[in-house]
Amino acid sequence: MIKHIVMWKLQSEALNATAEENAAKMKTMLEALQGVVPMLRRIEVSHDIRESDPQCDVLLYSEFDSMEDLKAYAVHPAHLECVDFIKQVVSERRVVDYAS
């Protein structure tokens, strides 16, 4: 199993919305991928971050059966729609993938 974790720091304002508004939109968009992207086994998204160092506004945790599935997810059209939005509102991104 491959675990995929992404942490984003958002711009304070982007696309005429606050970071909090864009974080909520990211959560909705990303969670909507469950059941649409067949290789996505599990996804959790939060913008209620209690503590992080470095600071982040949105956290994604997802699971895939293999690295091949993670790579297929990365180029899936529904995921790419999320990426298009996220790139416009994010200021920093950190990612880690690991096998368990």
Short description:
The chain has helices at residues 19-31, 67-74, 77-89; strands spanning 2-10, 13-14, 17-18, 42-46, 58-64, 90-99.
How is this structure best described in words?
The protein has 100 residues and is of the alpha+beta class. The chain has a single domain, classed as Alpha-Beta Plaits, CATH 3.30.70. 34% of the residues lie in helices and 35% in strands. The strands form two sheets. A four-stranded antiparallel β-sheet has the order 4-5-1-6. Strands 2-3 form a two-stranded antiparallel sheet. The model has no long low-confidence stretch (mean pLDDT 97).
Write the layout of secondary structure elements.
Blueprint: E1 2-10, E2 13-14, E3 17-18, H1 19-31, E4 42-46, E5 58-64, H2 67-74, H3 77-89, E6 90-99
Antiparallel strand pairs: 1-5, 1-6, 2-3, 4-5
Helix pairs in contact: 1-3
Which features would summarize this protein structure in a list?
100 residues; alpha+beta; two-stranded antiparallel sheet; four-stranded antiparallel sheet; 6 strands; 3 helices; Alpha-Beta Plaits
